[in-house]
UniProtKB/TrEMBL annotation:
Annotated keywords: FAD, Fatty acid metabolism, Flavoprotein, Lipid metabolism, Oxidoreductase, Peroxisome
Entry GO terms, CC: peroxisome
Record InterPro entries: ACOX_C_alpha1 (IPR055060), Acyl-CoA_ox_N (IPR029320), Acyl-CoA_Oxase/DH_mid-dom_sf (IPR046373), Acyl-CoA_oxidase (IPR012258), Acyl-CoA_oxidase_C (IPR002655), AcylCo_DH-like_C (IPR036250), AcylCoA_DH/ox_N_sf (IPR037069), AcylCoA_DH/oxidase_NM_dom_sf (IPR009100)
Gene3D superfamilies: Acyl-CoA dehydrogenase/oxidase, N-terminal domain, Butyryl-CoA Dehydrogenase, subunit A, domain 2, Butyryl-CoA Dehydrogenase, subunit A, domain 3
Protein name: Acyl-coenzyme A oxidase
Subcellular location: Peroxisome
């Protein structure tokens, strides 16, 4: 193969690295924080130099091989944790840096947090250390064959037997089989099972959580009365290394202590003990939070993976990044990725504050956290899924190669729209919370002002005593507003306020897509307010040229958020009417175009700011030095079909077909 190291790709990339005014290292520290950034580098160098984490053979492995490779990696990270005395957050960071769906993630993201937040002190005392050290491996068994979203309709039962102080877990019908459970198929030794609590009085107290051993710790065989299996391959080959499984229980007895009873329980005699706050039984906050962080990480990867070229005016082929139709697609993705990282960090801080309050019995922050995380999960996963596919298509044909690295990310990530709450179902929860806040805001006088949580702050536009600043005052503002992020944030907040008011007015008969649009508007407004704060703080947080460029990048995010909500912005007259001046939204689109033009020379610096190594990206097209074609050749050489010149099927299929054809054509070459 010709030496391509001095090819135009490499030259272009070197040149592109001279254009940005931003210092990518400074951006990395701004995005991740100095402590996490340094920990990332330390862990990255260990993982990327360990053959267990080699990625070169990954595209050619069967599902079973991918599963076994996944087990090897999770076991190795556990060994490394002990060897390097990693903290729990270092170990979690190692899995984040590795960024492959693995069975252990269900232990970390679902099993462990649910046990921690809902297990009794006695259960903790017995199992916390075993769980923390992975002496037992867990999964979370909620979904059944016939029910996922409608948890209240789950069929698995846990009947309390006072005589022996036990629960009897049972799968009463074929459709009650647990299904989709990550790590259940072949890995987990234990699980937390959602089952209907049936009391001796025959009262059905609805779904509750129970801690159950599934497999022997001696030989890993399934325990008596339990039938377990893997549910098979997933769409597009995604999640291959995770053994999503099914399970049936045939009158399996567990001790009374294994009910997760921090907030609900039964007395020895079988009386139900009520939770002090129904929402405390909700165990999904932490799971959903990690998902928002994951979405941000994914969004970053595809934004970084894009290099191609065709002919331009200078005699050389034009770099496709210079086509407006390409950078108008990619720069907003870059902006969203920057926003999602900061949102993830803000959410972590808010979640820590929530846990501190919960530990004192104060549940006041819980409803706002629930609504916020639901909205952000929908926004981040919907945007990331769409952006992954946009990034893949922007790379043309090579984007369809597995070696581009984006198809695999898409296949693994697309299910995020469904798990941890189907996005459409979560939309309805966001709307419900918004309507409650609206009712409170509407019933307070302007003088009193309603007490609004940060995620409801947009509703202040409904009661603003200044009529020029009311919800419908948008048209009085000139199009110069698009250069001022604060005015754009106001626009997004007004849109949310108008839409919630409209939704309340049609409470009994909302239109076809209203809940999706309202939920999006509400979450956009919440995100916009956070972005506004970040922009305000840029001088202090990063300063210099980086602050100037990031202000533009975050403003681009705000403008594209308005653009994607234009139907409603225009419907509510927030941009005024179309008149002699023509399309009232033209100013917005021109502003997006100008910002993209200004940001284009910074694109490589901004994507370098994510700080991903070639090992992490594992993309022929996204290599740091731009040497895409040579890397693509090298990866193609590993293809198993290329290992023998004559394919296995030649004698049996190709040769007879050619000979038959020659006979029929009465000709021989
Ligand atoms: C990769 C993956 C991993 C998973 N891991 C686990 C796991 O470890 N443990 C576990 O317990 N489960 C797991 N699940 C299951 C997952 O939680 C459910 O698939 C999810 O909750 C959606 O439920 P469902 O599949 O029953 O969809 P359904 O509820 O049947 O949804 C079907 C359609 O109906 C719509 N719909 C349903 N109800 C409503 C409603 N009330 N309002 C409006 N629209 C509605 C939905 O929007 C969707 O379009 C996993 C799923 C996947 C894909």
């Amino acid at each position: 193969m010709a030496n391509l190291s001095q090819n135009q790709n490499v030259v272009d990339m070197k040149r592109a690295r001279q254009l940005p005014t931003v210092d990518s290292k400074k951006l990395s520290i701004f995005l991740w924080g100095e402590t996490e950034w340094e920990a990332r580098q330390r862990i990255l160098s260990i993982l990327s130099n360990d053959p267990i984490f080699d990625k070169s053979r990954r595209p050619f492995l069967t599902r079973t091989q991918l599963y076994t490779r996944g087990l090897a990696m999770m076991s190795r990270i556990h060994e490394l944790t002990e060897q390097h005395q990693w903290s729990a957050s270092d170990a979690a960071l190692a899995f984040k840096v590795l960024d492959e769906p693995l069975p252990i993630q269900l232990h970390m993201a679902a099993f462990e947090p649910v046990l921690k937040s809902q297990g009794s002190p006695e259960l903790h005392a017995k199992y916390a250390a075993l769980v923390a050290h992975r002496a037992i491996l867990g999964c979370y068994l909620q979904t059944e064959l016939a029910h996922g979203t409608n948890v209240a309709a789950l069929e698995t039962t846990a009947t309390y037997l006072p005589a022996t102080r036990e629960f009897e877990l049972h799968t009463p019908t074929p459709t009650a089989a647990k299904w989709w459970i990550g790590a259940l198929g072949r890995t987990a030794t234990h699980g937390v099972v959602q089952a209907r609590l049936v009391l001796p009085s025959s009262r059905d107290a609805g779904p509750h959580l129970f801690f159950v051993q599934l497999r022997s710790l001696e030989d890993h065989r399934t325990l008596p009365g339990i039938t377990v299996g893997d549910i098979g391959p997933k769409a597009m080959g995604g999640y291959a290394a995770v053994d999503n499984g099914f399970a049936r229980f045939e009158r399996v007895r567990i001790p009374k202590e294994q009910m997760l009873s921090a907030f609900a329980g039964v007395t020895d005699e079988g009386e139900y003990v009520r939770p002090p706050h129904a929402k405390l039984s909700y165990g999904g906050v932490e799971v959903r939070l990690s998902l928002a962080l994951e979405s941000a990480t994914i969004a970053i990867r595809y934004a970084t993976v894009r290099r191609q070229g065709t002919k331009g005016e200078d005699g050389l082929e034009q770099q496709v990044i210079t086509y407006p139709s390409v950078y108008h697609r990619l720069l907003p993705i870059l902006a969203r990725a920057y926003v999602f990282i900061l949102l993830g960090r803000n959410l972590s801080t808010a979640f820590t504050a929530l846990l501190a309050r919960l530990s004192t019995g104060d549940t006041s922050l819980l409803p706002a956290m629930h609504a916020t995380t639901a909205g952000l999960k929908v926004l981040a996963s919907t945007a990331a899924i769409a952006d992954l596919e946009t990034a893949r298509r922007s790379m043309g044909g090579h984007g369809f190669s597995a070696f581009a690295g984006v198809g695999r990310l898409y296949a693994d990530y697309v299910a995020a729209a469904t798990y941890e709450g189907d996005n459409f179902v979560l939309d309805a929860q966001v709307v419900r919370a918004a309507l409650k806040a609206f009712a409170r805001a509407a019933s307070s006088t302007p003088a009193q002002g309603a007490e609004l949580a940060p995620n409801e702050a947009y509703l202040r536009w409904l009661t603003d005593p200044n009529p020029d600043a009311g919800v419908n005052a948008g048209h009085s503002v000139s199009t110069a507003r698009w250069g001022n992020p604060r005015r754009v944030v106001e626009m997004l907040e007004r849109r949310a306020a108008c839409m919630v008011r409209e939704r309340a007015a049609h409470a009994a008969d909302p239109d076809a897509s209203m809940d999706q649009r309202v939920a999006r508007a509400v979450t956009d407004a919440f995100v916009a307010a956070q972005v506004d704060e970040v922009i305000d703080g840029l001088e202090g947080s990063v300063g210099g040229k980086e602050a100037v460029v990031l202000r533009k990048l975050y403003t681009l995010h705000l403008l594209t958020a308005v653009e994607s909500g234009l139907t409603d912005v225009l419907s509510f007259g927030l941009l005024g009417e179309a008149g002699a001046a023509g399309d009232p939204s033209r100013g917005l689109r021109v502003a997006i175009k100008r910002l993209c033009e200004e940001l284009l020379p910074e694109a490589i610096g901004l994507s370098d700011g994510f700080g991903f190594s070639d090992w992490e990206l594992d993309s022929a097209l996204g290599v740091y030095d731009g040497n895409a074609y040579e890397t693509l050749y090298k990866m193609a050489e590993l293809e198993p079909l290329n290992q023998s010149e004559i394919p296995d099927g030649y004698e049996r299929y190709i040769k007879p077909m050619l000979e038959r054809g020659q006979r029929l054509a009465s000709a021989k070459l």
